[in-house]
């Protein structure tokens, strides 16, 4: 569902940065927020509008409550099946790192979010750690 926040801003519920609802202009930090939701969605297979994201709960808070130790309960089971393969610890650490990146990008204040360039470096670092 698309909603119109301001004459120049369209977006989907759950993916739009919170500042857009307060009249802030479009920014690359808003894109970082949207990217965060995609990261969290990709690893949990939950959408920001799913049933567990009602009332005070949202996808970010739900993930946050399971970090650092209990994220196995929220990660897509198909991803966790790879846990049986060699280098299990690095794989699990990589998933945890990606969830943490998603949460950093989902901070409420745009000034507290990393830039996309910084996010790119973080993701490359996770990839490098998995490559050995």
Structural commentary:
Helices cover 46% and strands 7% of the residues. It is mainly alpha-helical and 132 residues long. It starts with a strand and ends with a helix.
Key features of this structure:
132 residues; mainly alpha
Provide the fold topology.
Elements: E1 2-6, E2 9-12, H1 28-44, H2 59-64, H3 77-80, H4 88-105, H5 116-131
Antiparallel strand pairs: 1-2
Helix pairs in contact: 1-4, 4-5
Low-confidence stretches: none
Largest sheet: 2 strands, antiparallel
Radius of gyration: 16 Å
Element pattern in H and E: EEHHHHH
Straight-line distance between termini: 42 Å
Instruction: State the total count of DSSP E strands.
Output: 2
**Strand order, largest beta sheet:** 1-2
Strand content: 5-15%
- Specify the structural class: mainly alpha
Helix content: 40-55%
Number of helices: 5
Whole-number mean pLDDT? 79
Name the shape in a single word.
globular
Summarize the structure.
18% of the residues are buried. The protein has helices at residues 28-44, 59-64, 77-80, 88-105, 116-131; strands at residues 2-6, 9-12.
